[in-house]
Design a protein that fits this description.
heterodimer, A: alpha+beta, Ubiquitin-like (UB roll), DNA polymerase, domain 1, Enolase-like, domain 1, 3 domains, 5-stranded mixed beta sheet, 5-stranded antiparallel beta sheet, 32% helix, 22% strand, B: alpha+beta, 8-stranded mixed beta sheet, 19 helices, 24% strand, globular
Chain lengths: 488, 784
């Protein structure tokens, strides 16, 4: 396997060897390359001051995406183009259109968050289709500013969104694409540094092989979780296997059984197809983290890390998604619910990995909803995340599946509550009568996100909300959209 | 910029005109240097501070021998290594840089490790053997009050007999509520870089709002003269008060490392360490009782404030004084008692934060106005109007200052109209009747904020102005640029006075060896006092040039006029540059200092009375919110602001302060929750857990305007007003609007108990409680 990282920067291929494989892109830029325009605000992918843009060839087309440099490991640049805030100005010193827009809008104060905003807006300028004005909040959800109150930045973003101006990166696109196409042909990567290994296999077969040799290896995808093991816990990871170069794991296919999402499909890429099947699932993805994190974080990672507060598992569980696992012994399929055994314990054998998940297609007459409750609407971890799937026969509940995140050590179904509702009439009395059972289904914890009382009350009220939305859909129940509210 | 063509009609960069932030073009290109961006010296040492894991404990053993032996470690610093005084406090001498014998908060600095790399320093710190004997920790205000644990003595302001007049009043109401603290969450964490100089001198780059205090504290810590320590600050990546006193110990530790090793040393706190180790806005518990008549006019008011000061005094005296000075806000309370308890807790020592106690003080009367209105079934705006300060009478504050510049009535009236308050309030009530789960609320609240440091001696500033022989100008002053646009405002002042294009004015980094003995850039005073000092320096130069020109050309002084970039001297017109060159050749000094001390203010700290403020800044806001009564989630959907910036020096900058202030205040009162566990450990110390407003939290409708008639009645710099802090308190309207929405579930018969911040949890619980209250009340009524 190849032993040098190869990426594109400023129109040239850069090669790196003998590097600490868990060094972050941010620390590399700031402390080795003296490219200090990119800032550290939190080192956990939550503030966006470190935003850089990565270019990748997707189906032969150059695609720019903003990511958080603070939690990306340096070798994950392999095969990509890196763009930082220093790269945007024209050679003659003229500001890039995005930079100019922010200056003109008076969108800077202390300026520390500014490079991150610039890079988010730069990525947005190059995205297709461009985000319309109403979604600028989503584009910028991952960039915190403590000074401006955002209004001036939004003004700049609107100006950028409405402009059809082209920049140098458009003109250089062909040349860049050629460089990236050359890198695509590179073999898989194996770095060694001290006693550490970093693998970036290019196929599932290579992955199976490496994983069989290093069954204790850490599987790395978007680094939105593992990155923090380095930046926050200061752990040393002996062997890391990066999944991001395996094309097979990035496939999205609609099959008879449903929508099959490869484990390395990012939230960003899963968003549209999921939203098409289940609008509420789309809304959930919109609320998960930020653009930068959605560009990195993966559906597979959200499942495989077994977190009790991952946002997709409750929805996947009520939809009865199937999880596809694989090892050198072959594939294994399980209902996703069975994957979560206990806190920190998943049904994953040594040498086995999550390969894909299949989300069943919507059933006629079935109703699905999911809700995420957090202190802040965007870029926040849920205090409670709920998902419901209801099948009615007339007024009678034929089936209901209820699952919550944040209520137990795993994403967990409300089996007692479900059982009590099934066979009953879907009405206010049934809901009121069964709500107390929720207290037997769950004994939530108190922590900095919410108290146990709140979690329980909110969980019960969300079931009530689901009832209201399914029985009287004309009643506004959602804090969304124009004027701040909407019907489900 | 290189010599753009000179303007002839009006200079570029006049005062009272919008102008971009001076660093905007550098900031967007990543070229604006913050301290951690400065090219690192080759032999730089990196520092890591080991922190106490206990909130309150005796240190039985602190053995760092293994730390010293760890790879890469060059020096380990403990209290024993301090050559001077182990303290970095602003006033009281009670903030040890390194803990001695006892720790009083989780996160307190124990020792520091200097190593070749930060990773080595951090890893080595873990090798220390530390034994604690845990002592009971006082974490909350209630615990402190119960234990009589105070960091400073309780203070009182009394006028008349409040308690008797409350008793005698027709109606009485009491409210008790808690106000959470707030982390500054400046995007740039604390950082200091120390460089060795000759003679053992130390040069320090510090991310501070108060370079002079850093200089003095470092000198004291290192047992050096003040003149041996120089501190420079070009810009900080956000301050908000969090860098007023807190930077000194980091600078001291870096300075000590440099002194002991002769090597440059840097300390940069990561987000978690910054949030755990450094102080925040004070949490308050407030009890208010008021007596009032049928119109809601208050005859007697009694406020009891208790604040969480943390382990040391820091600036808590002035902060709590300011809370007391803002318990009146815009309202005249004839008989009033204000009591302020300053609680000592085993938590981080709380510190300055935009508003400096004012916001907490002001929330009390503003909640009461709404509670009274709800009780009387009135529109809260009418209750507010009934209590506003008068112009000629009812115009003396509880601390005996006459309000001479009251424009609150005009601002409220204009905003009430421009925001269409009355119609919207009706529409909201109709919406709420029809919407069973989502409820809207609206509120208009005013702000009157006192401008000046309450510690009178701090109201002084200096500036240094050089004119070079090509006519370009360098201006330096004691103020810190932390994003608020101070540098550009001061440059505008200089450009205006000298009538030269602003590109001819270079703003240089604030340094203790250029302008000494400066005050913190705080209390919204930056442009007021540094602008005046710079103006004084510019006027001195201008007068000197005029006098020279008059003599040189043999004309009268009155025949000299400064036109844009040139000077009319009798019949001659000479460019600024040429006149400067002539003056130089004639051996005229082209350098001047400038000095300013705020007039009129005086204040007796013993009796808490006098004129602590030169003037007041005013504003008002209408906020409209929507809440989900099933989950407590809430959203501010529309804001209208009318704010008084006097005659604004730079409306673009001031609007930025107004909007940013509102949003920061909104965060304080809605999503930003500091959560300490019962052992006093802060659990929200990074953006993953501590939620400042994000882009989508900005209300979709955000109308703001600077009050057009605004003009300072006092002779401030070009009649402008300070604008840093006052807008933060406009966000009280958002909190009150949430309360209004909650009240709607009882058809506005009851006013909710609601603590800040109004997280979904607090809102849902308030909805639950008020519904219970209404139900109980109904049952009682039915029984009767």
């Amino acid at each position: 396997m190849r032993q040098k990282v190869r990426y594109v920067h400023r129109g040239e291929i850069v090669e790196l060897e003998n590097i600490d494989p868990t060094k972050t892109v941010l620390n590399y830029l700031r402390y080795e390359k003296a490219l200090t325009g990119t800032k550290e605000g939190c080192a956990e992918g939550d503030c966006g001051a470190c935003t850089v843009v990565l270019g990748e060839l997707v189906n032969g087309k150059l695609k720019y995406q903003a990511v958080n440099a603070c939690i990306q490991f340096l070798p994950t640049l392999d095969g990509k183009e890196l763009i930082t805030v220093e790269d945007l100005k024209e050679k003659d010193g003229a500001l890039h259109p995005v930079q100019k827009a922010l200056v003109d809008a008076n969108g800077t104060q202390c300026g520390f968050c500014t490079p991150g905003f610039i890079m988010s807006l730069f990525a947005e300028m190059h995205s297709t289709p461009k985000t319309d004005r109403s979604h600028i909040n989503d584009v910028l959800a991952g960039n915190l500013c403590r000074c401006t109150g955002y209004g001036t930045i939004v003004d700049a973003a609107v100006a950028v969104a409405q402009s059809s101006e082209k920049d140098r990166f458009h003109t250089e696109m062909t040349a860049t694409s050629a460089l990236l196409a050359a890198l695509k042909k590179d073999s898989g990567l194996h770095l060694t540094w001290l006693d550490r290994h970093y693998f970036a296999p290019k196929t599932v077969d290579e992955l199976i092989d490496v994983l069989a040799r290093y069954p204790d290896a850490i599987l790395l995808s978007g680094a939105t979780d593992v990155g923090l093991w380095i930046t926050k816990q200061h752990r040393e990871l002996t062997t890391v296997i990066y999944l991001g170069q395996i094309q097979e794991l990035k496939e999205i296919e609609t099959q008879e059984g449903g929508l099959k999402l490869g484990a390395s499909v990012t939230y960003s890429d899963a968003w549209a197809p999921l939203a098409e099947l289940y609008p509420d699932f789309g809304e959930l993805i919109r609320r998960i983290a930020s653009t930068q994190i959605r560009n990195s974080g993966t559906i597979g990672g959200n499942i495989a890390n077994g977190s009790p507060i991952g946002d997709t598992p409750p929805a996947l569980i009520v939809l009865n998604a199937r999880l596809h696992l694989r090892s050198k012994d072959g594939p294994r399929d399980i209902p996703i619910e069975d994957f979560f055994i206990d806190y920190g314990n998943q049904d994953l054998k040594p040498g086995e990995f999550v390969e894909a998940v299949t989300v069943p297609l919507p059933k006629v007459d079935a109703k699905f909803a999911t809700y995420k409750i957090s202190k802040r609407f965007d870029q926040d971890i849920s205090a409670v995340c709920a998902a419901f799937h209801l099948t009615l026969k007339g007024d009678t509940v034929e089936d209901i599946r209820i699952c919550y995140g944040g209520m137990a050590g795993i994403p967990k179904r409300a089996h007692l509550t479900e059982k009590a509702i099934i066979g009953q009439t879907w009405n206010e009395t049934t809901i009121s009568d069964t709500l107390p059972l929720m207290e037997e289904d769950y004994q939530p914890l108190s922590d900095m996100r919410a108290s146990n009382q709140y979690r329980m009350l909110a969980a019960q009220n969300l079931l009530r909300k689901f009832y209201v939305e399914t029985s009287t859909p004309e009643v506004p129940t959602r804090l969304l959209g124009e004027g701040g509210f909407a019907c489900a | 910029m290189r010599n753009p063509p000179l303007s002839r009609n009006v200079i570029r960069g006049t005062v009272h005109a919008p102008r971009h932030h001076d660093s905007a073009a550098k900031q967007v290109a990543g070229e604006a240097l913050y301290i951690d961006d400065i090219a690192e010296p080759k032999d730089l040492l990196n520092l890591y501070i080991a922190q106490s894991e206990k909130a309150h404990a005796k240190i039985l053993k602190l053995d760092v021998s293994a730390v010293r032996r760890a790879p890469g470690v060059v020096v380990v610093l403990t209290a024993d290594d301090v050559p001077g005084i182990n303290d970095a406090s602003p006033i009281a001498g009670d903030d040890p840089v390194f803990a001695e014998e006892i720790v009083e908060y989780a996160g307190q600095s124990l020792f520091a490790v200097a190593a070749e790399t930060l990773d080595q320093a951090r890893a080595a710190a873990k090798l220390a053997i530390i034994e604690y004997e845990e002592l009971p920790a006082i974490v909350t205000v209630e615990q402190a009050m119960a234990a009589n644990s105070f960091v400073l003595p309780t203070r009182e302001i009394r006028r008349g007999d409040a308690s008797a007049s409350i008793k005698a009043a027709k109606h009485r109401l009491t409210q008790r509520f808690e106000i959470g603290g707030q982390d500054h969450f400046y995007l740039e964490g604390h950082v200091a870089l120390a460089l060795p100089g000759e003679d053992g001198d130390i040069f320090i780059y510090s991310s501070t709002q108060h370079p002079t205090e850093v200089q003095h504290n470092v000198a004291k810590f290192l047992n050096l003269s003040d003149h041996a320590v120089t501190v420079e600050v070009r810009r900080v990546g956000g301050g908000f008060g969090g860098k007023e006193t807190q930077g000194a110990w980091f600078a001291a530790i870096a300075g000590l490392t440099t002194k002991l090793t002769g090597r440059p040393a840097k300390i940069r706190l990561d987000r978690d360490d910054d949030m755990i180790m450094t102080g925040k806005r004070h949490d308050f518990v407030v009890t208010v009782e008021m007596g009032f008549d049928d119109n809601g006019r208050v005859s007697g008011a009694e406020f009891i404030f208790a604040s969480r000061c943390g382990r040391s005094a820091d600036l808590s005296a002035s902060i709590n004084d300011r809370a007391m000075f803002h318990a009146d806000n815009c309202y005249y309370f004839e008989n009033v008692t204000i009591i302020s308890h300053r609680c000592k807790t085993h938590t981080v020592s709380n510190t300055a934060f935009r508003g400096f106690g004012g916001p907490q003080g002001m929330l009390a009367p503003e909640r009461m106005m709404d509670a009274i209105a709800c009780y009387l079934g009135k529109d809260p705006i009418d209750v507010r109007k009934a209590n506003l300060y008068g112009k000629k009478s009812r115009n003396v504050t509880p601390y005996q200052m006459t309000v001479e510049d009251n424009i609150a009535p005009e601002i409220i009236a204009e905003l009430e109209k421009s925001s269409d308050y009355a119609a919207r309030r009706e529409a909201i009530r109709a919406f709420n009747k029809a919407s069973p789960y989502l409820k809207k609320g609206i509120s208009l609240t005013p702000v009157k904020f006192g401008i000046s440091f309450t510690a009178t001696h701090l109201n002084q500033a200096g500036a240094l102005l050089h004119v070079y022989t090509d006519g370009s100008v360098m201006i330096n002053h004691g103020g810190i640029e932390m994003g608020q646009g101070l540098y550009i405002k001061v440059a505008q002042v200089v450009a205006e006075v000298l009538q030269i294009d602003i590109e001819r004015v270079k703003i240089t980094a604030t340094r203790t060896d250029k302008v000494p003995n400066t005050s913190a850039t705080a209390a919204s005073s930056g442009a007021d006092i540094n602008g005046k000092a710079a103006e004084a320096a510019a006027i001195a130069i201008k007068e000197r040039l005029a006098k020279f020109a008059a003599e040189y050309y043999g004309v009268k002084l009155s025949e000299i006029t400064f036109l844009p970039n040139r000077i009319r001297i009798g019949k001659h017109v000479v460019s600024f540059r040429d006149l400067v060159q002539l003056a130089y050749m004639s051996r005229i000094s082209l350098s001047s200092t400038g000095f300013y001390s705020t007039p009129k203010i005086h204040y007796d700290a013993e009796t808490l009375s006098g004129r602590p403020f030169y003037y007041f800044a005013y504003g008002a806001a209408v906020s409209e919110v929507i809440i989900d009564t099933l989950t407590g989630e809430n959203k501010v959907v529309a804001v209208d602001i009318l704010h008084d910036a006097g005659k604004s020096l730079n409306p673009a900058i001031d609007l930025g302060q107004i909007e940013g202030g509102y949003i920061q205040g909104m965060g304080w009162l809605t999503t930003e929750e500091l959560y300490y566990d019962d052992k006093g450990i802060l659990k929200t110390h990074a953006p993953s857990t501590y939620k400042i407003p994000a882009c989508s939290d900005r209300p979709a409708i955000f109308n703001m305007k600077i009050f057009e008639q605004g003009e300072n009645v006092e002779e401030t710099i070009f009649r402008s007003k300070a604008v840093g802090e006052p807008p933060l308190m406009l966000a009280i309207s958002a909190f009150n609007a949430i309360a209004d929405a909650i009240s709607s579930v009882t058809d506005y018969r009851f006013y909710p108990e609601l603590n800040a911040p109004a997280t979904p949890e607090r809102v849902l619980m308030a909805v639950q409680n008020i519904s219970e209250t209404a139900k109980t009340h109904k049952l009682t009524e039915a029984a009767q």
